[in-house]
């Protein structure tokens, strides 16, 4: 190769990788589309601290709550596609919200580049202790005999928990009364008091109360029992193929250089596999589940397909 060709080849390589060679050269923002203090915010702050240490660049957590996560997550699209603005997405922002809008404001697969799934959290069907059921088979039998009489609480309309309850109803052929609340806490208060009969909740919210006997765990809505509540059977054990869980993962704006996407994936997955980080996040009730960008993209596509059917069947729509 002559000198001119060699110089040209080296220049091309240099120009194709400048972002990766310098990344991150300045502070990185991690957008959390919910208020401070929640489970998603806790995970974000753990990652931000560890990435700051790893990169020697500050990772700033920005909480931008509103519209069920829509406002904050959509703000990622208003930033340059350079890897300096990350979005911590959830089942709501990356699957449900766009499906419930007459005119979606973004497409999770087209407008964002997946980095990695972070963790999953099982959903659990719980009931007031006075309800005479110990498993899902007994619950379904009771609900069928009292069609439209059993009430269930959720932290809000069109949330992942609301859709999970609709999914449960669709698979089992039961009808219940939806009572939406503004969060998990008020739903729990009314469930403790017997004002509502049942609720779908994450194990993070409900496990301690099940163990204390304040509420009863009826069925894990995932394929496996959990170590937090090993005595609570799964829906599959009762003969119903139900798999539903909350989850969160990192995405960036589509068009971000592939090299930066790969770098982010490598660094975040390495942190999630660190024993101390894993222990801290799992102590919150999460199941660590990192993977490749392609695996996360397929996961989002699968979740979107499942919830699209549930939303259509239930007629759920947010204007």
Give a quick set of tags describing it.
globular, 10 strands, D-Maltodextrin-Binding Protein, domain 2, ten-stranded mixed β-sheet, 319 residues, single chain, alpha/beta, 12 helices, 19% strand, 2 domains, 43% helix
Stretches with pLDDT under 50, minimum 5 residues: 5-16
Percent range for β-strand residues: 15-25%
CA-based shape: globular
| Count of individual helical segments | 12
On the 0-100 scale, what is the average pLDDT?
91
Q: What is the top-level CATH class of the largest domain?
A: Alpha Beta
CATH superfamily of the largest domain: Bordetella uptake gene, domain 1
What class do helices, strands and sheet pairing give?
Answer: alpha/beta
Radius of gyration: 22 Å
Please state the second-level CATH architecture of the largest domain. Answer: 3-Layer(aba) Sandwich
| Terminal-residue CA separation | 63 Å
CATH topology of the largest domain: D-Maltodextrin-Binding Protein, domain 2
Largest sheet: 10 strands, mixed
How many distinct folded domains?
2
In helices, the fraction of residues equals 40-55%
Number of DSSP strand runs:
10
- Give the SSE string: HHEHEHEHEHEHEHEHEEHHEH
């Amino acid at each position: 190769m002559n000198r001119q060709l060699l110089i040209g080849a080296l220049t091309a390589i240099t120009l194709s990788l400048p972002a990766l060679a310098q990344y991150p050269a300045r502070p990185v923002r991690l957008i959390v589309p919910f208020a401070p203090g929640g489970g998603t915010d806790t995970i974000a702050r753990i990652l931000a601290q560890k990435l700051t240490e790893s990169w020697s660049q500050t990772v700033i957590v920005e909480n931008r709550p509103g519209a069920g996560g829509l406002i904050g997550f959509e703000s990622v699209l208003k930033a340059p596609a350079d890897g300096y603005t990350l979005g911590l997405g959830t089942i709501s922002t990356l699957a449900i919200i766009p499906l419930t809008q007459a005119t979606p404001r973004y497409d999770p697969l087209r407008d964002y580049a997946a980095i990695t799934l972070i963790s999953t959290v099982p959903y659990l069907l719980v009931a007031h202790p006075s309800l005479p059921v110990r498993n899902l088979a007994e619950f379904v039998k009771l609900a069928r005999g009292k069609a439209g009489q059993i009430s269930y609480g959720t932290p809000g309309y069109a949330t992942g928990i609301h859709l999970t309850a609709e999914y449960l109803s669709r698979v089992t052929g039961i009808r219940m009364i939806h009572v939406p609340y503004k969060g998990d806490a008020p739903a729990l208060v009314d469930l403790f008091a017997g004002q509502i009969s049942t609720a779908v909740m994450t194990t993070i919210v409900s496990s301690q109360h099940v163990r204390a006997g304040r509420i009863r765990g009826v069925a894990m809505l995932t394929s496996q029992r959990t170590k937090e509540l090993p005595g609570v059977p799964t829906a599959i054990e009762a003969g119903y193929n139900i798999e539903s869980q909350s989850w969160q993962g990192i995405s960036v704006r589509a068009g971000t250089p592939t090299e930066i996407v790969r770098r982010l994936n490598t660094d975040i997955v390495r942190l999630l596999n660190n024993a101390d980080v894993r222990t801290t996040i799992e102590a919150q009730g999460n199941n660590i589940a990192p993977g490749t960008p392609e695996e996360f993209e397929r996961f989002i596509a699968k979740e979107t397909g499942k919830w699209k059917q549930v939303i259509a069947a239930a007629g759920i729509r947010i204007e």
